[in-house]
């Protein structure tokens, strides 16, 4: 999987009742397997009641010795907004982000991030980073997300776009390269999305990966390796792994049904049939009479 991109964009969507969401990107020392941390991509949230989210995103590639950071955003101070571009896509009523540490936190200053400020609004902003290729190197996408209120329906996943994106026209249907992260909607949907774009189509993973659905912060990590294998980790614990070819439908199936094939006229549908070549053994014992299984003794 060789990805080239340079645009990073979060998008937040809200409909229905009161909807408040918080996203936070900050540096921590939680990542002990990757050597380096980076932050931020694209987030799309659909919610029908109050919700808070805090997130840390990491995007990097690493070799056995060194890791190369492609993008980093800490939201350390109010100057973050000078580097980000809000979407102006027509037909959407966009809200504005505020700089906040949320309802609860470890450090009121160090844990500050961006937070949505208005109910029932769409939120979308983006920031560019330099073009890169992960050819021959593992690619890591990582972020933390926190739902401060028990969430009923909302997506906390991130997306990475390619270089062709018009930042001021970004919207929910904009093509992307990778989508990764938790999605919750009622008791039936509590999963981690892992979606790759390939030849103009979005390919969803064929496995069901359950996400966390409590009020605490959780670290989500996707690792795509040069040997076409992958790993998904939650809080640095592996929850899924495998081969890209086996777990996504990137390639056509090796076998398909022949649409021209027809059942022969003499096809036998019975589960078993008599063997026309079978012969009775020479010592076959076939008595002239056999007991009647339905017979009863007269009174």
From TrEMBL:
<dbReference type="InterPro" id="IPR001580">
    <property type="entry name" value="Calret/calnex"/>
</dbReference>
<dbReference type="GO" id="GO:0006457">
    <property type="term" value="P:protein folding"/>
</dbReference>
<keyword id="KW-0732">Signal</keyword>
<feature type="disulfide bond">
    <location>
        <begin position="153"/>
        <end position="185"/>
    </location>
</feature>
<keyword id="KW-1015">Disulfide bond</keyword>
<dbReference type="GO" id="GO:0051082">
    <property type="term" value="F:unfolded protein binding"/>
</dbReference>
<dbReference type="GO" id="GO:0005788">
    <property type="term" value="C:endoplasmic reticulum lumen"/>
</dbReference>
<dbReference type="InterPro" id="IPR009033">
    <property type="entry name" value="Calreticulin/calnexin_P_dom_sf"/>
</dbReference>
<feature type="compositionally biased region" description="Basic and acidic residues">
    <location>
        <begin position="255"/>
        <end position="299"/>
    </location>
</feature>
<keyword id="KW-0143">Chaperone</keyword>
<dbReference type="GO" id="GO:0005509">
    <property type="term" value="F:calcium ion binding"/>
</dbReference>
<protein>
    <recommendedName>
        <fullName>Calreticulin</fullName>
    </recommendedName>
</protein>
<comment type="function">
    <text>Molecular calcium-binding chaperone promoting folding, oligomeric assembly and quality control in the ER via the calreticulin/calnexin cycle. This lectin may interact transiently with almost all of the monoglucosylated glycoproteins that are synthesized in the ER.</text>
</comment>
<dbReference type="GO" id="GO:0036503">
    <property type="term" value="P:ERAD pathway"/>
</dbReference>
<dbReference type="GO" id="GO:0030246">
    <property type="term" value="F:carbohydrate binding"/>
</dbReference>
<comment type="similarity">
    <text>Belongs to the calreticulin family.</text>
</comment>
<keyword id="KW-0256">Endoplasmic reticulum</keyword>
<keyword id="KW-0677">Repeat</keyword>
<keyword id="KW-0479">Metal-binding</keyword>
<dbReference type="InterPro" id="IPR018124">
    <property type="entry name" value="Calret/calnex_CS"/>
</dbReference>
<feature type="region of interest" description="Disordered">
    <location>
        <begin position="251"/>
        <end position="299"/>
    </location>
</feature>
<keyword id="KW-0862">Zinc</keyword>
<dbReference type="Pfam" id="PF00262">
    <property type="entry name" value="Calreticulin"/>
</dbReference>
<dbReference type="InterPro" id="IPR013320">
    <property type="entry name" value="ConA-like_dom_sf"/>
</dbReference>
<dbReference type="GO" id="GO:0005789">
    <property type="term" value="C:endoplasmic reticulum membrane"/>
</dbReference>
<keyword id="KW-0106">Calcium</keyword>
<keyword id="KW-0430">Lectin</keyword>
